[in-house]
Structure formats: structure tokens, C-alpha cells
Amino acid sequence: MAKSKDVRIRVILECTNCVRNGVNKESSGISRYITQKNRHNTPSRLELRKFCRYCHKHRIHGEIKK
Questions:
Q1: Around Cβ 14, how many Cβ atoms within 10 Å?
Q2: pTM higher than 0.85 for the full model?
Q3: Do the domain assignments include residue 39?
């Protein structure tokens, strides 16, 4: 039997530093990544350390609503 597909969901990660400080005047946007997570193993919001191309540093990217 096939398992249901709604266990793994697609989430959007957004740079928390860019959102908190507002976007810099010289930058053109906010860094976002798309990934998947298992809803049963990770029920809370996902936070990963990813490279922000607007801050030019590794920053914490948090899950946002779609």
C-alpha cells in the first residue's frame, strides 16, 4: 500500500536578519530557500543556518507561512 504524501511538506526559509533590520539600501531583496521537512519528526518551525546572499554571511533562516 502506498503511504499518504502529506507527511513531508514544502517549507520556505527566510533570512531573519534581513527581515528584522529591514532590507539594506544597496540590496535588492530578502534571501529565501525552499526545502522539505517531515511533519511528524519536526512539528515546530524549522531554523537552519544558510548563506544569505544579501548580507554576504551565514545567517539563521527561519520557516515562514506560505
A1: 15
A2: no
A3: yes
- Which residue has 522539505 as its cell numbers? 36
Q: Checking phi first, is residue 22 left (phi over 0); if not, alpha (psi -120 to 50) or beta?
A: left
Residue 2 resides in a domain: no
Question: What CA–CA distance (Å, rounded) separates 23 from 25?
Answer: 6
Query: Domain tally for the chain?
Result: 1
Q: Which three cell numbers mark 5?
A: 504524501
- Is the pLDDT reported for residue 4 higher than 90? no
For the record, the C-alpha cell of 53 comes out as 546572499
**The CATH number of the domain where 49 resides is what?**
2.20.28.120
Q: Which amino acid is at 50?
A: K
Task: Please give the pLDDT value at position 66.
Answer: 72
Any domain includes 1: no
